[in-house]
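retry 2 of 3: previous attempt timed out while embedding pyridoxal-5'-phosphate. Reduced batch size to 1 and resubmitted. Inputs unchanged:
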Amino acid sequence: MSELAVKAEKLDAADELAVLRERFVLDTVSDHATDAAGVYLDGNSLGALPVSVPGRVDDVVRRQWGELRIRSWEESGWWTAPERIGDRIAPLVGAAPGQIVVGDSTSVNVFKALVAAVRMAGAGRDEIVVDATTFPTDGYIAESAARMTGCTLRPVLPGEVPGVLSGRTAAVLLNHVDYRTGRLHDLPGLTAAVHEAGAVVVWDLCHSAGALPVGLDEHGVDLAVGCTYKYLNGGPGSPAYLYVRADLQDRFDSPLPGWNSHADPFGMRTAYEPGAGAVRGRVGTPDILSMLALEAALEVWDDVSVDAVRAKSLALTDFFLECVGEYVPEGRVASLTPVAHEERGSQVALRCEDAGDVMKALIERGVVGDFRHPDVLRFGFTPLYVGFADVERAARVLGEVVGKPA
Ligand SMILES: *Cc1c(COP(=O)(O)O)cnc(C)c1O
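retry 2 succeeded.
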């Protein structure tokens, strides 16, 4: 056994979170060449299936829908699920209850949050600042939101945001972690800078929630959105969430004021009157099947500390970089992920000239990461179900794949 494989064994033996692996359905992909169990490093795209989900979905479909039918809106708690599940996500992002509502996609929530942010900022402010390196959907929506609200869109790198803020800035849309490079941005510092300028900040937590502490309440974040199918393991297309800080809820003027957000939804009134609290972020009838699958998936977090998850995540990415340094021939890959812990999310992105072919070969060998156009290999480390032996094996297989002459 190599020195690194021995080290991996020791790290796994000392890992208090290792038992959580049993809460997931794993090892269904294997290495065709050796038949060894697979390594799943794509939980930052689609989290693995928690064992608690299939039975719950079966019950929701057969009993709640099949037998109780319409009664389930009350008796099975369907109607209140968006706020109830929001409260379940809240501790994972450092929010007190009553501020998060689950529903719609991240894209739709970015729209709601950003337009509401501009409306909150008030007259005379006509600029939206957006992260120039953002996941594309946030950028597209920001462009449309700017057009609709009569604002100018200003794309800048997150580090340059403080320098462009002014009395004209209405809202700033930022990603907590860069989906491509895995860079973690300074949420407390940037939030303070936006507030200093009198503007409203919207954070996208897609690549941080469930991987590291966010501290929404602690840092005074105004609005935030995130998806639930990455580190929160809600399943393909599971609904996203919207956070509106408690003291801003009365001023949250939704651009999509559907009947579910009405103060009296079953009053069927002609005039719109927004409900109080997180409910204001709702739009139409929630996607109950996905929503309740997510609720079951969140049970894996019941006794888990986000700080412990963060510590393991950093240990996993540190160890991966160490193993890559050892196993991958010099010059074949270059890490795009910051070395400093305070600037690193829970993934490692490696630039590699033939990344597309390399990722195909890795998946063939049971090591599943993903490829981002044009030359990035992305490996996500989900501390709930990835161990150190997985990390060592992934780096070793990567070394074998890229070491082969083309
Ligand atoms: C994954 C991700 C999304 C996904 O948006 P959907 O509407 O759920 O498809 C949006 N923004 C960021 C930053 C993401 O990482």
